[in-house]
Write a structure and sequence with these properties.
By secondary structure, the protein is of the alpha+beta class. The protein contains six helices and 21 strands. It starts with a helix and ends with a strand.
Length: 342
Amino acid sequence: MFRIFCVGILAIFSLSALADDSVKQLFKKVNDGVVELHVTSIASPKPGQVTYKETTSKSLGSGALISNEGNILTAAHVVGKATNIEVIFTDGTKTSGHVLWVDNLIDLAMIRARKVPSNIKPLKLADDGGYTIGEQVIAIGAPYGVSHSLSVGYLSGVRDRELIPGTDIAPRLLQTDASINQGNSGGPLFNLDGDIIGIVSHILSKSGGSNGLGFVVSVDTIKQVIASEPSAFIGLIPHLLNEMESKAINNQYGYGMLIQHVVPATLADKLGFQGGYLNVMIGRTPVLLGGDIIIEVDGVKLKNLKSALSLRERFSKYKKGDKVKFVYLRNGVKKDVTWTVD
């Protein structure tokens, strides 16, 4: 009996050692493909601030290199208002990055690094559904600025959201108890094969730190978004107005996209659009008033989320030389500007 007990204990320790070794090998295999992002972004208004004057703030995030051309997956909230992105690789190489596209509804974005070290190989996306609740997973990122930190946990659940209007995408989030903190955002979650099964989005926490409730955008959703050929980022951070909000600000059209911010050196900046300057709260949502209100783009009236999202497909199909007309309100006066696609 004692002998059987000892054999059992040895077997448990052997399995544990094998698991630890597999995680060690996995970290060595995938770590180089994880990047650290130092981001300068347009700052949001401070609580209680009424008159807003644009400033910048610095933040930290992570990303996953997925192509030799320098394409990097990350979270939309990490780079969505970025004015400057510094990409840092494991070998110490620092380079700039620029935003290719942003999907705020899903919290996913793609940036491109200007230069990729020759010794850094891209990471692989897992197959659709390439995950199972209960399997061990690892996250790599820069929590609180501690670069390339490894955390190990389990896949705790699968959370499906409703279909996004006008698309065939119903975002799927994967839940994990792997430790996720500020700085992990945008970083990859791996299965034990070393394939990316998700990109870190957010946590649920009362303290602000990891409480074992982390959520990542699933690989299924990532592939759907990429396959949809997202339109290039034009540099607008909008707030979609409903009819009640439109009436409250005397917008006679009853709809439109109220511009919150315009990112410098983007198409929106080139076309001369202006963001808001008066900070108010609508329910629990801070909204900047005073910016331009775009009411129509290329003949499409921006009456709801579906019509706004329909512009994604249009923008992805424009060719050089096409002319796109934007109709907007500035201080109540209707104006328009035409963009010649270059």
